[in-house]
Amino acid sequence: MKNIKFIVILAFAVTIGCGEAKVVELGSLQQRGGVYVVPETQKPYSGKFVESRGNVVIRAGSFKNGKLHGEITIYNKDGSIIGMVNYKDGIVQRGSFTDSRDGKKYATVKIGQTWMAENLNYDAEGSKCCENNPANCQTYGRLYDWNTALKACPSGWHLPNGDEWQKLVDIVGGDKTAGAILKAASGWNKNGNGTDEFGFSALPGGGGYSDGGFFDVDLGYWWSASEDNSGSAYRRRMFYYSDDADWSISLKSRLLSVRCVQD
After folding, report:
1. Which pLDDT band, with edges at 50, 70 and 90, does 225 fall under?
2. pLDDT for the residue numbered 21
3. Dihedral pair phi/psi, residue 70, rounded to 5°
4. Per DSSP, which regions of the chain are E strands?
């Protein structure tokens, strides 16, 4: 907590200028077409910044030529770190991972932890393609019941628990806005696309029943590893008609999408 206070004081004490070390409050810059500039000169800003709400820092990092660059740290209201996101010239950096079990390659992204940036498409026993259409597996991944989902991620990866899902959602702004930010920029019905600002690229994989049939094919459901007291399991859900990324429970026999997170 002491470190956070130091950052806040520094941000307000150092003004924009020609000094070797400068830290500016994000609100003192202007945004011009996605580039942050120094108001007095209109030149793209390079250097450290903090973004604060009141006297609380919520984000800190650096700009290069007016765009986010390097490791950006996101903070809780109490000053603790939620996580970090890596940028290069304003773009979140994505990696890749190849599943040795079947050779499938997945995009990955670090948003606090390293996540697969695509739904899992491993052909585990009992998993299904939405509407039994193999083309849907290529786009949306496969659907799994909860017990299968717990074991479906490749070695070195796991099904995220409720805390890990919440950490992801908190980094991108909280339950009420995370859907808009985590959803892919295309692929959602009825103008329900997101900004995909962090490269998570969530798509609507729908859900299914173990004994046949499918539901909500234009929504997205993702299992967590966390159970509730009734014997059901928690899932994260996103909608085409809402910015939410809500938290609800589902029968473990239902078939939902899986996002794996690195151990």
Report:
1. very high
2. 61
3. 95, -160
4. 23-25, 30-32, 35-37, 47-53, 56-64, 67-68, 70-75, 81-88, 91-92, 94-98, 105-111, 113-116, 157-158, 207-208, 214-215, 220-227, 233-238, 245-250, 261-262
Phi/psi at 242 (nearest 5 deg)?
-150, 155
Say if residues 201 and 118 touch (Cβ distance below 8 Å): yes
- State which of 51, 66, 91 marks the end of a domain: 91
Span 64-85, pLDDT tens digits: 999 999 999 999 888 899 999 9
**Quick one: 87 and 99 in the same domain?**
no
Residues 6 or more apart in contact with residue 85 via CB below 8 angstroms: 71, 72, 74, 92, 110, 111, 112, 171, 198
pLDDT in tens, 155-209: 999 999 999 999 999 999 999 999 999 999 999 999 999 999 999 999 999 999 9
* Cα–Cα distance list, 91 to 67, 137, 198, 243 (Å): 8, 28, 8, 22
b/e per residue 74-108 (b: at least 16 CB within 10 A): bbeeeeeebbbbbbeeeebeeeebebeeeebebeb
Residue numbers of the domain that contains 52: 2-91
